[in-house]
Amino acid sequence: MSRVAAIVLAAGRSTRMGPVNKLTIPLGGRPLVAHAVLAALGSTARPVIVVTGHEADAVTGVLTGLPVTSVHNAAYATGLASSLQAGIAALPADVDGVLILLGDMPAVSASLLDRLIDAFVHAADPAAVVPTLGGQWGNPVLLARRLFAPVMGLSGDEGARRLLAREQVLEIAVDDPAIVGDVDTPDALADIARNFPKAP
Questions:
Q1: Domains of the chain from N-terminus onward
Q2: Model confidence over 4-47: pLDDT tens digits?
Q3: DSSP H helical segments within 145-194, as ranges?
Q4: Range list of H helices, the chain
Q5: Secondary structure class of 24 (helix, strand, coil)
Q6: What does the angle CA 42 – CA 43 – CA 45 come to, to the nearest 5 degrees?
Q7: How far is CA 169 from CA 37, 102, 105, 134, 141, in A?
Q8: 102 Cβ partners below 8 Å, 6+ apart?
Q9: Global pTM exceeds 0.85
């Protein structure tokens, strides 16, 4: 049986949100980043690794008590690639694939993650599994182990998307705007907060 882990990227500076670290802003009764982490924990992905960088203590502080592994990316200011690499370097050797979640996408559900994992497990050796909405690629993306080494060669703000252009990618069509809904501005936060369910 394939083993899939999850990495939650929570290292960025969120400069468009002003002086406050957006990942610690309350949304639906929980810090923003906690929603992505709880979705990962609610799925079958294990382990769940959270990559921190900017204001790492604040981010790890709001996740206290959750069964995750925190990895600090001291080079977070160099861009997304270094955070991806820090997360992948922390994975156990027997992991067959990894879900890459963005800490600022709070509406992604555990059921979506498990759907991507199930597709990966039952497909004919895809390099990646990507959810789509109306033909548009979204997040999170599931990467197979064979992409781990190429990811370690990325730099700056390069994500894994460039690598996928020449790989076998399994696209999973979903009717879920959460896969394209990140929180990058105060307006985006206000929009998502209007209809976001309150934590029990």
A1: 4-194 (3.90.550.10)
A2: 999 999 998 765 555 678 899 999 999 999 999 999 999 999 99
A3: 148-151, 161-164, 186-194
A4: 32-42, 56-62, 80-89, 110-122, 148-151, 161-164, 186-194
A5: helix
A6: 125
A7: 25, 20, 22, 17, 10
A8: 8, 9, 36, 139, 140, 182
A9: yes
